[in-house]
Design brief:
The structure holds three protein chains of three kinds. Chain A is an alpha/beta fold. Chain A has helices at residues 16-22, 26-34, 63-75, 84-88, 100-108, 140-152, 163-169, 194-197, 214-223, 228-239, 242-247, and strands spanning 5-10, 36-37, 53-57, 78-82, 131-133. The radius of gyration of chain A is 19 Å and the shape is globular. Chain B starts with a strand and ends in a 6-residue tail after the last helix. Classes of the chains: A alpha/beta, B alpha+beta, C alpha/beta. Chains in contact: A-B, A-C, B-C. The interface between B and C is large, with 55 and 46 residues. Strand 5 of chain B pairs antiparallel with strand 1 of chain C. The structure holds flavin-adenine dinucleotide, iron/sulfur cluster (2 copies) and FE2/S2 (inorganic) cluster.
């Protein structure tokens, strides 16, 4: 098989996830043996180019984004949502907490009408996504795993259980034992509890498990004396656009 | 076999000399009243007084992730393998000894699990008695694990200024010989040991409103109890309870492909019945869809099903599930609630 | 950490050579597999094998052929996910990993001399076919044989020719129904399989019923069988659960105190009727 051509595309994001790829070190060389990386700043202008795998960073926030992602989808054999912004809307989703025109005014003041904006959406909320690499930034070993799945032509399923599962397997001292609130119990695993292994709490960057226990969670907040607003703010930091899934 | 005595002042030397012979793991303090089994080089590293570790010593017998198969696709080869390490585990409480006995039963049940059985014989176990309750979550008396019931090579009980050590196997005896720090126990030590045990018989009382034998019968009648609805509302399915349990042994099988896309392995990894996808089948049916049904399954797998299959409780009384539960679901409270609600049916 | 090679691991697989592959429907593919050196799989009807592809994974799949067929065995794979999808890309000449046979199959010794009622819905024909062909190949050892089949539409019927040959046999009573059919020329039964049961004449005391189908089918079929006074311990069902090890360890397949992979997948209705979570 000839090396698949892989292209990275940025949408609304910080491009931090791409940095993760550059940080791969030795594994990067092994990966480059398997794929050919082709990058485009702007998809529309390179109609003649072709690619097999499109790796999408960032969330969909404008009409232009929508057109562009549809175009990429039509050309790519495999489409990968990469990083929190692309997989769950991520930080950009926080703007969904405010009415759109208010945000426009706040960011662009009186020029707001020249910058039409849409509610932030994750990529799968606009086009079909074949592979998800969650996380902000993505967890390198998981990305490598997904790449191997793409190359082997098999699906990759993001674990649908809590980060606590991996955290326990790693035998970390639970943040709650330290008196600190952690979003591990509601967040999808797959990162090998990376943050907690390094002394940080889980910020929920991978998105919520599909069937979180709403009542149970509320109970816990009460028991640990944690204000609901505070936790919703924390959760919304990455997870706001999940509401668009729930409504579907 | 016989009893030996180790002076407390020689304890550090004992661990240090053991560590020169073999890898030694023992409970180590992690702060916030948490502990874990880790490699130690000296007695000072060891937390002799500790409450059950975050993960039980199960992790050495049945590791979190374990390669079972390695393959090479282009060469068409596939081999079964065993990864193991010789070691001495020091400081295993009686509840965790019982946990290892449970796993022994499961993995030697036919068809036998060779990986487990070979690995287990590479490990020397040194038990350590709890002279009093670890904390309010322990419930080792009702499942009869508060006193030693075998399963160790050596067993330490703390006396005033020494440890009295029961030598149970020749492997334990070898360690006594090699470390050269022990003296044969005298009558006074045996008397002190009996005093410790006598006191324990007074302190350790059935921790729930039902005794050892009636516990299994309680579960005969509890499948439809409302108590499971309560747990359904509270449990968040984080899976902590099953992951820390010394007698849980469910696993998943995962294939990994290396970057050459040619070689790789088949690995088993701990899994748990609390995790949402655990019992889902193709076609989407999930036979234990609700968190309540999964909690019920967990309890029944400790107090009923293993009694039918292996004639013993698989709850060791260590209290880990209660200590770790996000929702503060308590094993003792659940059992008491079942006792209270025994008469009412849905 | 040391590593040793194991020759007696339960997780070792045999190299199964695909000697025939046939796409049966859009989502179902049949594979005929032979083991190294022509070794016989030596299974009972109703048992299953773990089929694997290195780097992808393993899946439990029923053995569809009868043990009377020697030298090779057949499986039918419905494409639903990772392993099954990868299997669909395999063809004659390819090799898959085989572990097994596993589980308790149908108790053929007990069935001997008795009348039989087979009820298969949808993919249930795949495992039941193993027993049906076993019985047909040893026809004189059994009493009356009734076969009832159900599927979504006539196009979904698997093993069409073979089913046809069963239907033509004089020593077999045969009936079939479909959930729906758009073809105006079709003049067979339309409706659920439960509707076929009342019409069967049988002697309940000496009849064993073997039922395999999707989860929802069991409840309704069993009600009909009980109405016919077939004793509970003479109703045999095969249950499907998530399975990872196949040998009673991993816990995925547990139905209360039963391991479906080891104590089943074939159970008598008597064994499971009081087990909530079973049906
Ligand atoms: C005893 C038995 C006999 C079976 N016989 C057949 C057969 O003859 N033909 C056939 O096509 N299918 C059969 N199945 C079902 C088949 O095992 C599953 O479809 C297959 O395991 C799915 O694997 P996958 O990797 O393709 O799916 P995945 O991508 O892993 O998952 C797809 C769906 O299948 C479920 N699933 C995953 N693994 C399993 C598993 N080990 N067991 C059950 N469900 C699972 C998942 O929860 C998910 O809902 C049988 C199952 C059992 C237990
Ligand atoms: S630290 Fe966070 S992720 Fe880890 S067990 Fe505790 S709550 Fe879960
Ligand atoms: S630890 Fe508690 S909340 Fe978590 S799965 Fe177990 S019972 Fe439920
Ligand atoms: S499949 Fe593992 S216990 Fe049944």
């Amino acid at each position: 098989m000839s090396k698949p051509r892989v292209a990275f595309f940025d949408f609304t994001c910080c491009e931090g996830c791409q940095l993760q790829v550059a940080n791969f070190g030795e594994t990067l060389l092994d990966i480059l043996n398997l794929i050919e990386v082709v990058t485009f700043r702007e998809a529309m202008s390179e109609k003649s180019e072709d690619y097999d795998v499109a790796i999408i960073e960032g969330s969909i926030t404008t009409e232009h984004d929508v057109e562009r992602i549809k175009h990429i989808r039509s050309r790519a054999k495999v489409l990968v949502a990469y990083g929190s912004c692309a997989t769950i809307g991520g930080i950009n989703g926080m703007k969904n907490k405010f009415p759109l025109d208010e945000i426009g005014k706040y960011v662009y003041q009186d020029k707001a009408k020249h910058f039409p904006t849409l509610p932030t959406r994750a990529v799968h909320q606009v086009v079909k996504v074949d592979y998800f690499v969650n996380g902000c930034p993505v967890y390198q070993p998981e990305f490598v795993k997904v790449l191997k799945c793409i190359l082997a032509g098999i699906p990759y399923a993001v674990p649908d259980y809590a980060v606590c599962v991996e955290c326990k397997l790693n035998e970390n001292v639970c943040m709650y034992d330290k008196g600190i609130t952690c979003l591990g119990p509601v967040t999808k695993a797959g990162c090998n509890s990376w943050c907690i292994n390094n002394g940080n709490i889980c910020y929920g960057c991978r998105g919520m498990v599909t069937n979180p226990a709403k009542n149970g969670q509320m109970d816990i907040l009460k028991k640990f004396n944690i204000a609901l607003d505070w936790i919703i703010n924390k959760l919304d930091m990455y997870n706001k656009p999940r509401e668009l899934d729930e409504r579907k | 076999m016989q009893y030996q005595v180790l002076k407390k002042s020689s304890f550090n030397d004992f661990i240090a000399s053991l560590a020169r012979i073999e890898k030694v793991v023992a409970p180590v303090a992690r702060g916030y009243n948490t502990f874990s089994f880790q490699e130690v080089k000296d007695g000072q590293d060891v937390a002799v007084k500790y409450i059950p570790t975050i993960l039980p010593p199960k992790k050495y017998f049945f590791p979190q992730r374990e390669k079972l198969i390695e393959f090479n696709k282009s060469a068409g080869t596939l081999e079964a393998l065993l990864e193991y390490e010789k070691m001495v585990i020091f400081g295993v409480h009686t509840c965790d000894l019982a946990g290892i006995q449970c796993l022994n039963m499961v993995f030697s049940d036919k068809p036998k699990d060779i990986n487990y059985l070979v690995r287990k014989n590479k490990i020397i176990i040194i038990g350590l008695e709890c002279n009093e309750y670890c904390d309010q979550y322990a419930s080792c008396k009702v499942v009869d694990n508060h006193l030693p019931n075998g399963g160790y090579d050596l067993f330490f009980t703390e006396l005033t200024d020494s440890f009295i050590v029961h030598v149970n196997t020749i492997y334990g005896d070898e360690l006594i010989d090699k470390t050269r720090l022990f003296n044969p126990a005298e009558q006074i030590h045996l008397d002190q040991l009996e005093a410790v045990r006598q006191k324990k018989r007074e302190i350790f009382k059935d921790e729930v409103k039902v005794n050892h034998n009636d516990l299994a019968k309680l579960f005969d009648k509890s499948f439809d109890s409302k108590v499971w609805d309560d747990l359904d509302a509270r449990c968040i399915a984080c899976g902590n309870c099953t992951n820390v349990c010394p007698s849980c042994y469910c696993f998943d099988m995962l294939d990994n492909l290396n970057l050459d896309l040619n070689t790789g392995d088949r690995t088993r990894m701990w899994d748990g019945c609390q995790n949402e996808p655990f019992a889902k089948v193709a076609g989407g049916e999930n036979f234990r869809k609700t968190r309540g049904a999964r909690q019920r399954h967990r309890y029944f797998r400790k107090f009923k099903y293993p009694v039918e299959r292996y004639s013993r409780y698989f709850c060791t009384g260590c209290g880990r599930c209660t200590r770790t539960c996000m929702a503060k679901i308590s094993l003792k409270e659940t059992i008491n609630a079942l006792v209270d609600s025994k008469e009412e049916k849905k | 950490m040391k590593t040793a090679k194991l020759t007696d691991s339960e997780y070792l697989v045999k190299a199964g050579k695909i000697i025939r592959a046939r796409q049966m429907t859009k989502i179902e593919k049949l594979f005929e597999i032979s083991l190294p050196g022509g070794e016989s799989l030596d299974h009972e009807p109703g048992q299953f094998v773990m089929v694997s592809i290195p780097g992808v994974g393993e899946a439990p799949l029923s053995i569809s052929s009868s043990p009377t067929k020697r030298g090779s065995f057949e499986i039918v794979v419905r494409n639903v996910g990772k392993v099954t999808n990868a299997l669909h890309k395999f063809d004659t000449g390819d090799t898959v990993g085989i572990r097994g046979p596993f589980g308790k199959g149908f108790p053929v010794q007990i069935l001997e001399g008795n009348d039989l009622l087979f009820v298969a819905g949808g993919l249930g024909i795949v495992p039941l076919r193993s027993l049906i062909n076993f019985v047909i190949d040893n026809r004189r050892d059994f009493g009356k044989v009734n076969i009832l089949l159900g599927c979504k539409t006539p196009q979904d019927m698997l093993f069409g020719e073979e089913v046809d040959s069963w239907s033509k046999r004089l020593d077999v009573n045969f009936d079939i129904t479909v959930d729906r059919c758009e073809d105006p020329d079709y003049n067979g039964n339309i409706g659920l399989i439960t509707k076929l049961i009342p019409g069967v004449t049988l002697d309940p005391e000496r009849t064993f019923a073997a039922v395999i189908g999707p989860p929802i089918m069991y409840k309704f079929v069993i009600i009909e069988l009980l109405k016919k006074n077939i004793p509970e311990r003479q109703i045999l069902v095969s249950l499907e659960r998530h399975m990872k090890c196949g040998i009673g360890k991993c816990g995925h397949c547990q139905i209360q105190n039963y391991y479906c992979c080891k104590d089943g997948p074939v159970f008598t209705y008597d064994q499971i009727k009081d087990k909530k979570e079973a049906l």
